[in-house]
Amino acid sequence: MYIAFIVILMLAGLFFGLKFTQVTENNDPVMAVLFKGLTTVCCIVISAVAVFHTTDRHFAVLLMFGLFFGFLGDELLALRFVFTEKFSLCFLSGAMSFLVGHVFYVVALYSIAPKAWIAAIPLLIIAMLLEYQNSKKHDLRLGKLYFPLAGYCAFVCFMGVSAVGTAIFNFSIGTLLFGIAGVSFIISDSILSVQCFSGNPTNGKNRAVHITYWLAQFLIALSALFI
Q1: What's the pLDDT tens digit per position in 45-99?
Q2: DSSP 125-157
Q3: Residues sharing a CB contact under 8 Å with residue 214, sequence separation 6 or more, in sequence order
Q4: How many angstroms from the chain centroid is the CA of residue 144?
Q5: How far is the C-alpha of 10 from the C-alpha of 7, rounded, in Å?
Q6: Cβ atoms within 10 A of the Cβ of 27, count?
């Protein structure tokens, strides 16, 4: 029965995500806040279901908290287009909320694969070099946000490569899903940085950001069911 409920939640999340894309491209920031939040709420509810249908409840609870802070980050980032005079504040607050969420993910990952760092460290170096190349290629104009966003980017990359390391050292369907989610998060944030700081935002980049982001969120929510 709960599987049918999860399928319904995933379909609802797809609907809300499509509506978010539509209202964003129609320049309706208030409705964008609503639909973006509802999409992530579907992920949170899936993770809540997983708490009661997993062999590792501690892991599932950590993921649920991570997704909750992702929800806060979603709303704060969306609000920067509603309260344009507080654009930077909303952006940084949203990034900090996501950072807290990633801390929960990292704690969850290393609770089931303490040796994941062995693979994560060399992968992190590669990921950061690629991020640096991305920033140079698109001439990102970060200004005063350079150092805080560089730190945030480094931690997102660390979470992503730790997820890959976890899949290597404690392989299961759940850790594989989380590993794919980790890579998707890195890709999403890379596209987001280009969308926000290259001076050339496009609807195509906006879609790519959210497709990869919500793929990551839904896979993380589902991963606890298979741990």
Answers
A1: 999 999 998 889 999 999 999 999 999 999 998 998 899 888 878 888 998 999 9
A2: HHHHHHHHHHHHHTT---GGGHHHHHHHHHHHH
A3: 13, 17, 39, 43
A4: 24
A5: 5
A6: 8
* pTM higher than the cut 0.85: yes
Q: Quick one: how far is CA 97 from the chain centroid? A: 11
Could you give the 3-state DSSP secondary structure of residue 210?
helix
- Burial (CB < 10 A; 0-12, 13-18, 19+), residue 59, is buried
Helices (H) and strands (E) in the chain, counts: 8, 0
- Measure the CA–CA gap between 193 and 176, rounded to whole angstroms: 26
d(Cα 185, Cα 194) in Å, to the nearest integer? 14
- If you ran DSSP here, which 8-state letter would residue 220 be given? H
Residues 136-189: pLDDT tens digits? 888 887 777 778 888 889 999 999 999 999 999 999 999 999 999 999 999 999
Query: How far apart are the C-alpha atoms of 193 and 212, rounded to whole Å?
Result: 14
- Interatomic CA distance for residues 212 and 118, integer angstroms: 26
Q: Could you identify the residue written with the tokens 């839904």?
A: 218
pLDDT, tens digit, 9 for 90 and up, residues 167-181? 999 999 999 999 999
The residue behind tokens 């991963």 is 223
